[in-house]
Design a protein that fits this description.
alpha/beta; seven-stranded mixed sheet; four-stranded antiparallel sheet; 13 strands; about 15% strand; binds pyridoxal-5'-phosphate
């Protein structure tokens, strides 16, 4: 039995998972969650009724998430990573005969997830410096006749922000559901978030994750803030009991420990700025200013990824992506990882 026609030439998502000394390729934070997190989880685990199905509505977790933003449970949704949140959104609002507008370049998983949901993708190219201006955004939104629009802010892999004026332009020039994927927003600061526009734009969805700034990539927990009708629609496509009891409990523990969980963010941001300045000193390299926990670097040719890997440093290769010729993306790690990276780079050039 052959796979579905529209999946035959599809390559699975595959950021390499290699056992090397320095892993700076998938934008996790280099610091494990604090001991308080594990202590809190350990206290809760024996009381979890794991012989029963979990709360299908994940109500306690969604209420706690909502409380952070002053929003009721009915405007919050959670799933196994923001990738599952996005899948559910594309299943509900995309699907056969429907279109999704994305930026090019953009987050590699967006078109993959869209494809599994049988949703056609239309792209708007980013301008200079990997940004979108309101006029280009409005024009693209109008012409795409898209049912869903999804932009990442900060952008992955460039690290640029999508301004409020651009989000408003995408929304007002279309009838689409407009998703702002804020996987890295904690590194950019609250004032950069589209959350404050939720009251104003009635088809806006803001998607977030515990995988990056919250240092819980291994947990798989993501969420969104949206008008209540979106949450009602997502209930139709989610699998029964899609969010397991352990993840719900772990999310609650993390939310009780906001300060401890996010204490390292300032350090990551400072380290990003330090590393960016150092990279600018390496002959032949060009960086883009980033608001995330990563930095995009353009090298002299497309061998940078392989040359670094042969020196034990794994970064993310974008050199063959349209618009990203000779580029790699480097995740912000620890100072000693950066020193190893810089030594390898100086060796290469
Ligand atoms: C890393 C990332 C995510 C996170 O996905 P999870 O499934 O929550 O781990 C989402 N969107 C973008 C743009 C990302 O880079």
């Amino acid at each position: 039995m052959p796979v579905r026609d529209d999946l035959t030439d599809m390559a699975p998502y595959g950021a390499p998972q290699l056992d090397v000394a320095v892993r700076l390729n998938t934008n996790e934070t280099p610091f494990a969650p604090p001991p308080e997190f594990f202590a809190g989880l350990q206290r809760r685990l024996p009381h979890l009724p794991l012989h029963r199905y979990p709360d299908r509505g994940a109500r306690a977790l969604r209420a706690a998430l909502g409380a952070r933003f002053g929003r009721p449970t009915g405007q919050v949704w959670a799933a196994k990573g923001s990738n599952e949140v996005l899948l559910q959104l594309f299943q509900a609002y995309g699907g056969p005969g429907r279109r999704l507008l994305l930026t090019a370049p953009g987050y590699s998983a967006h078109p993959l997830i869209a494809r599994t949901a049988a949703t056609a993708v239309v792209e708007v190219p980013l301008g200079d410096g990997f940004t979108l201006d309101p006029d280009t955004a409005a024009d693209a939104a109008e012409r795409a006749h898209a049912h869903v629009i999804c932009v990442a802010s900060p952008h992955n892999p460039a690290g640029t922000l999508v301004g409020a004026d651009v989000v408003r332009a995408l929304h007002d020039a279309s009838d689409a559901l407009v998703i702002v994927d804020e996987a890295y927003i904690e590194f950019a600061g609250d004032e950069a978030s589209a959350v404050s526009m939720l009251g104003e734009l009635d088809r806006l969805v803001v998607c977030r994750t515990f995988s990056k700034a919250w240092r819980l990539a291994g947990l798989r927990l993501g969420y969104l803030l949206a008008p209540p009708w979106v949450i009602d629609d997502l209930r139709k496509v989610r699998l029964p009991y899609h969010l397991d009891a352990i993840t719900q409990a772990a999310g609650l523990v993390a939310l009780e420990l906001v300060d401890a969980m996010t204490a390292h963010i300032a350090q990551i941001v400072a380290e990003r700025d330090w590393l960016t300045a150092q990279l600018e000193q390496v002959p032949g390299l060009k960086t883009s200013p980033s608001h995330g926990n990563f930095v995009l670097v353009r090298g002299a040719d497309d061998t940078l990824f392989a040359q670094l890997l042969s020196r034990g440093v794994l970064v993310r290769d974008f050199s063959h992506v349209t618009g990203l010729a000779n580029c790699v993306r480097i995740t912000i790690g620890t100072r000693s990882e950066h020193q190893a990276l810089l030594a390898a780079l100086h060796d290469v050039v």
